[in-house]
Amino acid sequence: MGLLIKTMQKRSIKLNxxxxxxxxxxxxxxxxxxxxxxxxxxxxxxxxxxPYSFWRFDLLVKQIYVAGVLSLPIILTAGLxxxxxMSLQGYNVLVDYNSEEAVGSMTALSLLRExxxxxSALLFAGRAGSALTAEIGLxxxxxxxxxxxxxxxxxLKHIYAPRFSAGLITLPLLTLLFIALxxxxxxxxxxxxxxVDEGAFWSQMNSHVDWREDVVNGIIKSVAFAIxxxxxxxxxxxxxxxxxxxxxxxxxxxxxxxxxxxLGLDFVLxxxxx
Amino acid sequence: xxxxxxxxxxxxxxxxxxxxxxxMIALQVSNFxxxxxxxxxxxxxxxxxxxxxxxxxxVKMSGVVVGRVTSIGVDPQSFKAxxxxxxxxxxxxxxIDSSASILTAGLxxxxxIxxxIGGDEEYxxxxxxxELTQSALVLxxxxxxxxxxxxxxxx
Amino acid sequence: MSxxxxxxxxxxxxxRGERKIFDGISLKIPKGKVTxxxxxxxxxxxxxxxxxxxxxxxxxxEIWVEGxxxxxxxxxxxxxxxxxxGMLFQSGALLTDLNVFDNVAFPLxxxxxxxxxxxxxxxxxxxxxxxxxxxxxLMPSQLSGGMSRRVALARGIALDxxxxxxxxxxxxxxxxxxxxxxxxxSKLNHSLGLTSxxxxxxxxxxxxxxxxxxxxxxxxxxxxxxxxxxxxxxSEYVNQFVKGxxxxxxxxxxxxxxxxxxxxxxxx
Lengths: 274, 155, 268
Description:
The complex is a heterotrimer. In chain A, about 85% of the residues lie in helices and about 0% in strands. Chain A is mainly α. Chain B is an alpha/beta fold. Chain B folds into two domains: about 1-30; about 35-140. An eight-stranded mixed sheet of chain B has the order 7-1-4-3-2-6-5-8, with no helix packed on it. In chain B, about 20% of the residues are buried. By secondary structure, chain C is of the alpha/beta class. Chain C contains ten helices and ten strands. Chains in contact: A-B, A-C. Chains A and B meet through α4, α8, α9 and α10 of A and α1 of B.
């Protein structure tokens, strides 16, 4: 693959017209293929280092703080407002059918199945994923990673593994908090403001939300998103050209790729699960 | 070291909050409490028509949930619908001549199975079958019957 | 002779893209001495250090350190070897999320199970040696370039390595610090029996401490020998470099086609 890229770079002759378009497409697809290959190799080399992150608990805790605790404000606020809006919108539709009690189960179901995992993942990619890429890119550009290697400390174990594991743990937890806050927000609007009966609100929710079907599937989704985002963010940092422009490009790529990846993966998972 | 302590406290709080959220979702929002496996026994019933009955629909006795529908299929011999359900062990003294009917909660609500207790001394056990069943009320049939009746009385 | 050689480079070739950074160089670095590797900027002196430490793989050729072929070593053994190496990066490469003290303590905490009091006193000693014991609570972002390099030096010697590589240690230091560093390097070398490799283009400072000098230009070694041999050498290259003359055989331009032929068009 490397040889292929080298020959591609050597042949920087620009062709015009249709052939040029063809050549450009081919060039781009080869480059995409190459970066997918590099990503896969990076992940393969990361896997054996993962258990180490649980052995060095102090590093893991620090990364959970960076990825999780620092993302709390945005996740909690977003969750609350999404729940409130869902409740308000749902009420307006349901009241026409005289079944406004169903607003609770509607809010809870949409939060658990879709909105919770997806919106949390998107916010996480923007908040924690981009920071991760920038941090690793800058550590590379300031030779900190090289310095670790020279101190006989494996960056895979010391830098990448704890960050990956922290992402894996953090996003599902954030998703749970997002959903819980969303339901509380929905409750506040429906019961506190719109005057839906409190008992009906909870009992409807209770009878329609299934633990296995809805809650567990939602958590599985968010674990999948966590793996995807952590992988993309770490790889982009690892792969970034160590200059300010390179790092900023990599950061943008993290957000774009993981957002699109989350939405695409969500469709696949939904199709398989429900 | 001071900083590490602060980080650890925050992470601890974060994890606790998440567990609280999970508990709230499990207990308040979903049917987790009724989902966990209670000791139960399985019985089945044949219906002419199950209407809109679904798997996991409640089985009620005098309005109290005593079990859940576990599967719905067609019986290969009689070509009737065979509904199997799990009933909690606590209610193990249902006489063998009890009847099961498919009922509807409200006019447009979900369908469930209602059990009417009989008077026999023998009780339903694992693998038993309800002998007396009443199928779901299908609205179209009902309207059809009514129309026939009206036209009959109109003559 | 061979028992005195610590690092041996055999016929090393390294390409970066199309460009040959090293073209079949061979070099022996003696044990317990200060070896200077000099050359104009862009000749890949830093790359050479990274090759020796096994961070980069050569396109051909071998590097032997302490009788082991660096690029054939398993990961674990390579890391074992690196524990005997200290490297001072040009930028310092301090870990930005730790303060000065924790940076110096970092390799000690990672590689030893020493109690915190001993680490404390060891770190204080190392910081004292570079004159920055008073700055131990500062964060790397609060340090000047020269200061962070001194902290990095303290970190580099924290594990008492057998060999230490300096990547441009004198760039951007004020004259006093430069003097201190020069003295520090030669002191460390002689009192601890370290083998030092200094990569630099600061001719005067380097020549004042080096026992053995090697000049690289255009991927080849153009001169090597003891300090005296180099200074008395006849090579035009060396003369130009050591004396800093603008004109001479050492190219100033990055390799390119002659100016006039460029305008004929890049194709073919």
